[in-house]
């Protein structure tokens, strides 16, 4: 296999702007998110005041043009902020990721001027948050099997169907819904629509009782004869599947950054604990068994960070980043699961209780191997790119 020339000459030094983003996100995570993170996990509810503050800080529309209220930043700035936010609260991270990567980016990149003016500004500023509605009871990894239908009428579409596992399902004000308009065309007959919360026939269903990222709301959404104006279709007729796959490619970078943040947060807590906790008359950090664990954790986290940064750089340079994004998500999610498990082990019995945070981080880590494309799907994507 030839060496990937895309990494040759890559500068890993963060600019002053990137360092400022990192510092701002780190400070926000520790002063605003940390104090109530355990309680939010317990009650399974995210404080809307914090979403408003995230919007005010610019975290909800980081890559959106300033014309629409966004920060106009690059993808690298976004993943740096995602890592810092997720190192404290992965639920906040996924709320931020969906809004930035899937909803705002897709709307700005593919939407019409009318759609941007009417929806993007509220999303970029955090006044409203978005949801990306692709998954269905029988269409998870197989995104081509859309049973939600959009029947074309004179001046609108009639939307019918059910979406599940929808992040921001009840808290969102704007949803991007993928639906089948022309079944005979299979995936080429799929469209994507902007649907507003509160429209007649749009019902928020049950909330999922999840193992991790419990503070972010995940719901089933149901649509019964919802009238969607034709001007709310994004792209040409039949563009929906390409839209979904294009946005998910970028979304994988965001989830990779979330996984990286979870791992980094668990490592930071483990390092601190190892220095403070004593056994046999000395800190456990002086025991070789613990030192080996910390060394392996740090090394894998750094490798994951380089993969995430590479994918972000390629996206910013306008280069093909599909393989890089899949690799970053695959590896970073595995690292997050491994590091958090080791973090619990280092903490011993304390790691098994909520007060020390790492048990929550372990629960949060697992979903990064599943959503926005399972690890198995990432391997298929990587193989497909290698075999082109």
Automatic annotation (TrEMBL):
One function term, GO molecular function aspect: flavin adenine dinucleotide binding
Which residues belong to any copy of the Acyl-CoA dehydrogenase/oxidase C-terminal domain? 240-387
Q: What SUPFAM superfamilies does the record tag this protein with? A: Acyl-CoA dehydrogenase C-terminal domain-like, Acyl-CoA dehydrogenase NM domain-like
Names of required cofactors: FAD
Q: Please give the superkingdom of this protein's source.
A: Bacteria
The UniProt entry, under InterPro entries, shows: Acyl-CoA_DH_CS (IPR006089), Acyl-CoA_Oxase/DH_mid-dom (IPR006091), Acyl-CoA_Oxase/DH_mid-dom_sf (IPR046373), AcylCo_DH-like_C (IPR036250), AcylCo_DH/oxidase_C (IPR009075), AcylCoA_DH/ox_N (IPR013786), AcylCoA_DH/ox_N_sf (IPR037069), AcylCoA_DH/oxidase_NM_dom_sf (IPR009100)
Q: Where is the Acyl-CoA oxidase/dehydrogenase middle domain?
A: 131-226
Q: Name the keywords, alphabetized.
A: FAD, Flavoprotein, Oxidoreductase
Recorded hits in PROSITE patterns, A to Z, give:
ACYL_COA_DH_1, ACYL_COA_DH_2
Domain Acyl-CoA dehydrogenase/oxidase N-terminal per the UniProt entry, residue ranges: 15-127
What Enzyme Commission number(s) does the record list for this chain?
1.3.8.10
* Record-linked PANTHER family: ACYL-COA DEHYDROGENASE, ISOVALERYL-COA DEHYDROGENASE, MITOCHONDRIAL-RELATED
The Swiss-Prot or TrEMBL record describes its family as follows: Belongs to the acyl-CoA dehydrogenase family.
This one is known as Cyclohex-1-ene-1-carbonyl-CoA dehydrogenase
Its taxonomic placement starts with: Bacteria, Pseudomonadati, Bacteroidota, Cytophagia, Cytophagales
